[in-house]
Amino acid sequence: MPPENLHLTLLFLGQVEAAHLEAVLEMAETPPAAAFDLVLDRFGRFARKSDRMLWLGPSRTPPNLLALHESLCRESVRLGLRTPTEAFRPHVTLLRKAAPVPRPPTRLEPGIAWPVRHFEIVESHPLPHGVRYETLAQAALSP
What we know:
With 143 residues, this protein is α+β, with helices and mostly antiparallel strands. Helices cover 17% and strands 38% of the residues. The chain contains 2 helices and 6 strands. The longest helix has 16 residues, at 63-78.
C-alpha cells in the first residue's frame, strides 16, 4: 500500500447520498471518545478469493478505540445510514492480492506505537490501480 493510503477504518459507510453528507460530516464535530495509544503488533490475513489481504493490527484493542467505533456506529444508525454487519476487527491493510506464504509471521516485536489523537471522515475515489482518499473532515479526540 502506498504510505498515504495506510489507515484504520473505524466505520465503512459505503455510498452516502448527498442529502446525508452534511449529517455525516457533523459526526466529526463532537468527539465521541478520548484519545488513546494503539500498538500494532499482530500480522494477519483475510483470505477472501477476490482480495487476499495482509494486515497489521493490535493484539489488544484499546477500550477507547472500541468506544469510538461504537459511538460512530450509534450515530450512523441514528442518521439512517448503513451499519457494519461484520465484527469490528481493527487493522491496517499492508498488501492486497498477497501471494500465499507458507508460514507468515504473526507478531511484530516490539510493535508500532500509534498515538491516536484524532479521526477523519474520508471519501474514497477508485482509480484504475488502487484508490485515492480525500479527507472531508477531521475531529480531535478528547485528551
